[in-house]
Amino acid sequence: MAEQYTALEVAINTLVKNFHSASSTDADTLTAQEFQSMISKELPTMVTTAGDQEGLNKLLADLNVEEGKGVTFTDFWGLVDSLATTQFGLQSKEKQVKCVKCSLM
């Protein structure tokens, strides 16, 4: 019988697999170009600034990636954390708005 994974387990596995598959050399770090390619492909609506060199440089600086250094999974996780926190805030506001409307009826 095949194991059944939860949606959250699948999501975590997908993040790890996507990071590893973005490396052309199976390294534990991504080059800036590999990172840019992965972000552009996998997060095109959430990270719109990484499309050009200036935007990529700012994103890498925001993640505290030193110039010329590879992007680690921990660096990538910092981006995921930021995006998830933003998404949580947006959904919480939507929920609060819906609840306020409900209580006013």
UniProtKB/TrEMBL annotation:
Q: Which residues form the S100/CaBP-9k-type calcium binding subdomain domain?
A: 8-48
SUPFAM superfamilies linked: EF-hand
Identify this protein by name.
Answer: S100 calcium binding protein V1
Q: Which organism was this protein described from? A: Cyprinus carpio (Common carp)
